[in-house]
Amino acid sequence: MTNNITNWTKADDARVLDAIRRGASRRELLAFLMAGGVSLAAGGAVLGSAGRAHAATPRKGGKVRAAGWTTSTADTLDPAIASHSTDYVRLCSFYNRLTFLDADLAPQMELAESIETGDAKTWTVKLRSGVTFHSGKTLDANDVVFSLKRHLDPAVGSKVNAIAKQMTEIKAVDPTTVTITLASPNADLPTLLGIHQFMIIADGTKDFTTANGTGPFLCKEFKPGVRSIAVRNPNYWRSSGPWVDEIEFIGIPDDNARVNALLSGDVQIVGSMNPRAIRQIEAQPGFEMMITPSGGYTNLNMRLDMSPGDAEGFVTGIRHLINREQILKAVARGIGDIANDQPLPLTNRYHNAALKPAAFDPEKAKFHLSKSGLLNQTIPVVASDAATLSVEMASVLQQEGARIGMKFDIKRVPADGYWSNYWLKAPMHFGNINARPTADSYFSLLYASDAAWNESRFKSAAFDELLVKARGELDEAKRKELYGEMQVMVAQQAGTVIPLFMANLDALNSKVRGMKPNPLGNLMGFAFPEYIWLAE
Amino acid sequence: MSNTMTAMVLHRLWVSFLTFIFVSFVVFAITNMLPGDIAEIMLGQAATPEAVAGLREAMHLDEPAILRFLRWLGGLFVGDLGTSLVNRLPVSEMISGRLGNSLKLAAVTTLLSVPVALLLGIASAIWRNSWFDRVVSTLSIAVISVPEFMVATGAVLVFAVYLQWLPALSFANEVTSFTQMLRVYAMPVVALSFVISAQMIRMTRAAVIDTLRTPYVEMALLKGASRSRIVLRHALPNALGPIANAVALSLSYLLGGVIIVETIFNYPGLSKLMLDAVATRDMPLIQSCAMIFCLSYLLLITIADVIAIVSNPRLRK
Predict the structure, then answer these.
(1) A491, part of any domain
(2) In this complex, is the C-beta atom of A416 within 8 Å of any C-beta atom belonging to chain B?
(3) Which of A78, A265, A406, B277 has the highest count of CB atoms within 10 angstroms of its CB?
(4) In terms of domains, do A120 and A59 share one?
(5) CATH number (domain holding residue A425)
(6) Which residues pair with B213 in a beta bridge?
(7) Cβ within 8 Å, pair B279-A72
């Protein structure tokens, strides 16, 4: 009776693997499987097979062709202006950063040997020695200073200019030491340096028609909007990996064309799959899917400075009226995680797991909504395709509302112009927030009293104070406590309902091994080239 | 060639040149009217007013539009297409490979579809109202009505995903042998041929039938000429003008209008290049692509006109 399970699919396989990676125990997994109607013995067999597929020794050699989901003539090898997934994959192939972010988004050292500070304001970066660029030049402090300073030059047009601006002084002390001084204390500097745009290039580089980095692959060919070919760097400083000889990377923007290319064997890896294609992939043997919890979310915003959000009990009522389970199952097709009305995803190490999401409870919702005096009135809700899945979420809310006498009028507006005309403006509307690497960036961008994107006009002096305190706090435990407290404040006081964190799907040929999700983005946070290998 | 004919051909070329200049101005004016510019698009969410101003200055976007236009036009006449604002590569370099790919696809499609379409069109005109004519007409109408993305996607699902006979993507760069070329081009070329040959078949058929109704054909019939002689010697030369125009119109579509086929087969051609350029407001690239489309269109139409002029027996003296 080992593999005699009906309804078990590859998407379920991906879900189990996702749970294992997040450290779910065997007991929890079996509970998860049994909830899905799988018997205990059969469940054990499934877990066994899921584990086997991913435990083996890497092997060198082979060529891989992988497809991303964006490509255009704007494709670039210049880290500062990179802005699409395709660029990030190439950056990770050809360059290195001072730090990289692991599966918990915690910074690990890459080109830096250590990054130290006493006050979170002045930082000393010690560089790894014996690292060479593809041109043969040895990495030294001047390369780092040049790479970081160019983000401040307006002519470069750097994407991370706003982040780089806090570095008021970047100085080479000796060939392997750089000091960075910040305008004000920020304990997140090592994390920020792990952002893709902060890749290290050689001092004085102006020509980006090819890449001269320290990364795992050499750039053999790069044609913007067409493809790039990366060949293994024989002198790579890290001894583990890269494994494959050559990676051809192309972009296929069309969803169907991308999946077809995988199924026909033209490519072995495709990034960002539409969940609609799950069935098509399951119908053919030899392919696998990978779930990456992205941390991005679509949220329902109620402005606290105008009706209906300002009526007491209204926001609380909506929190209990949102059927999170239903949204996860029906709207997101099971790909995602239930969220607790605060922006830090489960993959963020400061996520407060003790803070439980408001339970779906129509009776409680009815109680709070009638207290607000708005029950039986018709409330307009603005939704749009611009905010992923918001129209579907609004319909779920509408249905639940109808059962307790709360009417919602869904105003579906065009995607074009949504962000400038409706988002942040309408009294009750949907937003869509991309994942960010640090807790501070979420809170200062979205919840500080003077934040540019304060979606519900949440204002709290106590919160602002905690924000500044947490930013400069070097003690991890204290910091976690501060951020935990802030999450509770946001979940209970702000007018932003966050029903679930989204996840992304990638698909690959079963021959490709070594791919693991990284919350920085699809395809292992775009860094898969260095880690994958091909089974015989 | 007579003097009248030379004069007419020269006049035709002069008009083409004026059209070319006019189109370049219109394209420039319209792209300038698009909301947002490259500095804002490149910076995205990080677009603070200072950052945008700084980048604009660095790219010389702060100069008056007309000055930028004249500079670009001047460059065009000495063969300098300028530098892409987005990735700072020379436009000519970006275009050359893509143009080659587009021309290859267009050439293969032309070689396949034009002879087939002309043969079918003429044949159905000769056997007008026969079962053959009806089958061809019905099929070509059916093919015109099915959108090309249907044909292309259907073909990929059947031949690439299920049967696995052909690749789902067309890698124009990897064609080294003839059989490989057949495999790579089979699906895109068939999808494109469907669209353009249907048009050509119908136009050819109509043009030939039109001339078959003229008095001089009746005259030929009365003097006892054979059917094939009537069609090939008397009707066809006179129908050549309209046919050449129909073919030219269909072919001009092959360079700039094949965006759907390029997207589905991920074929790196010119249409996608121009679409990218518009999305990023990369002016020099948009301009250059538009000019290439315009030039190819003018070239084809001019050739068609010249064929019409030259083939007209009344002008041949």
Answers:
(1) yes
(2) no
(3) B277
(4) no
(5) 3.10.105.10
(6) none
(7) yes
A300 and A270 in one domain? Answer: no
- Indicate the SS3 state at residue A393: helix
Cross-chain Cβ contact A74/B280 below 8 Å? yes
| Residues whose CB falls within 8 Å of the CB of residue A492, separated by 6 or more in sequence, listed in order | none
- Per-residue confidence in pLDDT tens, chain A, 536 aa: 334 455 666 677 777 767 666 666 655 665 555 555 444 444 444 444 444 445 578 889 999 999 998 888 888 999 998 878 889 999 999 999 999 998 888 899 999 999 999 999 999 999 999 999 999 999 999 999 999 999 999 888 888 887 888 999 999 999 999 999 999 999 989 999 998 999 999 999 998 989 999 999 999 999 888 899 999 999 999 988 899 999 999 988 888 889 999 998 899 999 988 877 888 888 888 999 998 888 889 999 999 999 899 998 999 999 999 999 999 988 888 888 999 999 999 888 899 999 999 999 999 999 999 999 888 889 999 998 878 889 999 999 999 999 999 999 999 987 766 776 788 889 999 998 878 888 998 998 899 998 778 899 999 999 999 999 999 888 999 999 999 999 999 999 999 999 999 888 899 999 999 998 888 888 998 999 999 999 97
* Token duo for residue A366: 């009815």
Number of CB atoms found within 10 A of residue B16's CB: 17
- Considering the domain architecture, whether residues A12 and A29 belong to the same structural domain is answered as yes
Name all domains of chain B by residue range, CATH numbers in brackets: 92-281 (1.10.3720.10)
Is residue A268 domain-shared with residue A329, that is, in the same domain? no
Residues of B with Cβ-Cβ distance to A154 under 8 angstroms = 50-51, 53-55, 57-58
Q: Are residues A414 and A329 part of one domain?
A: yes
Tokens linked to A331: 């709207």
The CATH number linked to A145 is 3.90.76.10
Quote the strand ranges of A156-202, DSSP E: 167-174, 177-182
Same domain assignment for residues A340 and A465: yes
What's phi and psi for A302, nearest 5 deg? -120, 120
Residue A521, domain CATH? 3.40.190
Task: Return the bridge partners of A171, or none.
Answer: A179
Contacts of A249 in chain B (CB under 8 A): none
Q: Which of A299, A301, A296, A300 is nearest to A336 (CA)?
A: A296
A158: containing domain: 96-198
- Nearest CA distance, A73 vs chain B (angstrom): 6
Same domain, A284 and A300: no
| Same domain assignment for residues A148 and A270 | no
Is A27 inside any structural domain? yes
